[in-house]
Amino acid sequence: MSGPGTRGRVTGPVVTGPVVTVTLNAALDVTYRVARLRAGTSHRVEEVLERAGGKGVNVAAVLHGSGVPVLATGLLAGEAGRRVRADLDARGVPHRFVDVPGETRRTLTVVEGAGGTGDATALNEPGPVVGPSDAARALDELAAVLRDARPAVVVVSGSLPPGLDEAVVARLLDVAAQLGAATVLDTGGRSLLRTLEGLHDAGAPGPDVVKPNRPELAELLAVARTGSSDEQGAEEATDESVAEGAGVALLRRLGARTVVVSSGGAGLTLHPVDGPPLTARLPQPLTGHPTGAGDAAVAALAAGLRAGAPWADVAADAVARSAAAVLRPVAGEVDPADVARLRGQVVLDGA
Amino acid sequence: MSGPGTRGRVTGPVVTGPVVTVTLNAALDVTYRVARLRAGTSHRVEEVLERAGGKGVNVAAVLHGSGVPVLATGLLAGEAGRRVRADLDARGVPHRFVDVPGETRRTLTVVEGAGGTGDATALNEPGPVVGPSDAARALDELAAVLRDARPAVVVVSGSLPPGLDEAVVARLLDVAAQLGAATVLDTGGRSLLRTLEGLHDAGAPGPDVVKPNRPELAELLAVARTGSSDEQGAEEATDESVAEGAGVALLRRLGARTVVVSSGGAGLTLHPVDGPPLTARLPQPLTGHPTGAGDAAVAALAAGLRAGAPWADVAADAVARSAAAVLRPVAGEVDPADVARLRGQVVLDGA
C-alpha cells in the first residue's frame, strides 16, 4: 500500500510547509452553563466561556497542539472576529484571517450542571452576510495568504457564511493545487457536491482527500438523486443501509481522490485513491463530547498527507485523534497521551 | 384621594424635567429564532435580532413612545454596550450612559417557529464584573448625570452587575431625592430589602414608589424572616396565600412610601402613602408576551408621578400600559392605541 504523498510528488524532498486551514465561516464558540435547561423558562447563566471556533480553527488547534506547523486562515468580522483572533493568540495558534464587514457568527452551546454531564444544546448563528464585492476582495486576499504560506497541505472546512457560494471554495482549492499543496475538503453533503462540481467545471483537479461522515454521504446521495437536499430526503438516506460504495463512487466520478467516511464511534473507512479500502476503529466507542471529533480526524489526515505517511497509519491516527477529542470537553483539543494510548487499541481491517 | 405629586411639592409649578431611568445592569437583548428548541440537540438559528434591553431601558423606551421627556442612563461596557447605544439612537431614545470596563451582558431569548408562538426560553448572562474603583468612579459619574438632567422623576430598575452592591442604588436614590425628584425603585425582593436598609442606615428618605411583583414580595418576606433568600424559601412563599399586607407593612417600616404590588395578568394593587389601597385590573387577563409588562407599568407610575396625576388614574394607566406591553412581542414597546382602548376597560376598586 502506498502512502498519500503530496500532489505529483510521490517521492521527492521532504515537505516543510505548514498545513493551512481555511475556515470561511469561523465562529466565536460561546458556552453557557446553566443549572438545567428547560424550554419555555428563564435561566440565569452561571458561567460564560468564549473560544475561537469553526471546524478549520479546530483542525489548526489540534495540529498546533501536536507540533505540526500550521496557519489558520479564513474570514473574520467585527468584534466577535477580534475575540477569535485574541483567543488564537492566547493559545499560540498562528493565524492570518481576512476581514469582511459584519460580525462573525456565534455558536452557542448550553451545558447543564456543574460537571456539564448533560447533553449539550447547540444554537448556531448563520454568519455574516458577505456581499459580492467583499467576497471577491476576500477571495483575492485569501489566495494571497495561501501563496505567502507555501503550504504543504490546505484544508478547507465547514460551512459558508450567507452570500458566499461553493465557487469560492473551488477557487481556493485550485489555488492550493497550483501551489503544489495537497488538499483536504470537509464540508456538508450538498456543499461538497457543489464544490466538486465547481472544480470539475473549472477543469481544476479534485481534492486529494474528502471526509464526509455517514449522514453527509447520505445527504450527498439524496441531493444527487433528487437535485434537492430537503431534510426529509436527507433523513431517509441516513439509514445505516446507505450504500457507502455508491457514495464513494459518486465522489470519485466528481473528481475526489481519497475518500474518508467517518461513522462517529464506529470508526472510519478510508478509500485510498490508489488501493482497496481500509477500516479503522476502536474495539468499542468512547462516550464523551463528540463535538470536534471530526475535526481531530481531519487534523490527522492533514498531518498524514504532510508527512507522506502510509494510509494505514493515517487511518489509525485519525481514529485515535478523533477518539481523544471525544474525551475532551471542548473542540480543538486532544491530549497527546490519549492519542498515544488509543493509537495502540485501533483495529485495522484491509491493511 | 390625593395625587402623588413630587417630593415635598404637593402643589407648585408644573414639573418640566425628564424622567431619568437608571439601568445599572443594562443588556443587549438578543433573540434567536429556531424552528423548535429541543434540549440536547443542535439548532440552526434562523434569525438573530439585537435590541437595547434591561428593565430601565424598557421603561425609558415606553415613556419615549408616549411623548414623555426621558433620559436613559446607567452603566454600559464594551462592544455590547456600543450596540445598546446604537439601538437607542436608532429608536430616538435620549441616553447618557456611563462606561465601565468589560462587556455588557447579553440576555438571550430563544423563540420557536415563524410566528414565535411557543414559549420563549431566556438565558440571562450575569453582567460585567465591576471592580471597586470603577464602581466608585461610575457612581460619581452617574450622580453627575442626574444633576445635569434636573429630573422630575428618577427610576432605578433591575439587577446589579457582579461587584456592585445596593449601596450604589441607595446613593443614587439619595442624590435624586436631594435634587427634588420623585423616586421609583423596581428591583427584586432581596435587592429591594437591602436598598431600603441602605437608605435607612444613611438617614436618607425612602423611595416614593416601590413596585414589587407578588413573587418579589414573597422573596422579600422570606429574606426578612430567615435572613436568606434561598430558592426554596422564596418558592414556598410565592404561594398565593402570601399576606400582601405583611409585605407592604414591612416595606413601609423600611421607609418605602407608596407600594405597588403587581400580579401579572391579575392587575395590581396600589398602596398609596396617603390613603387606602386601590386595585386595578382588566376584566380578564390578556395572553401574549409578558416580558416587559412590569416595565410598562413602571413607566406609567413614573409618568403619573411626573404629571401629579391622581392615584386612581396612575393605577389604571399602569394596568393599561402593562396589558398593552403583553400584546407586543418585544419589551419596551406599547401601542398608544392599545393603551387607550385598554384604559377604558380597567376595573378599579377602592377609588
Automatic annotation (TrEMBL), chains A, B:
Keywords: ATP-binding, Kinase, Nucleotide-binding, Transferase. GO terms for cellular component: cytosol. Residues 28-333 form the Carbohydrate kinase PfkB domain. The keyword Kinase applies. It holds the Pfam family PfkB. InterPro entries: PfkB_dom, Ribokinase-like, Tagatose/fructose_Pkinase. The keyword Cell division does not apply. GO terms for molecular function: ATP binding; phosphofructokinase activity. Coiled coil: none annotated. Belongs to the carbohydrate kinase PfkB family. This is Tagatose 6-phosphate kinase.
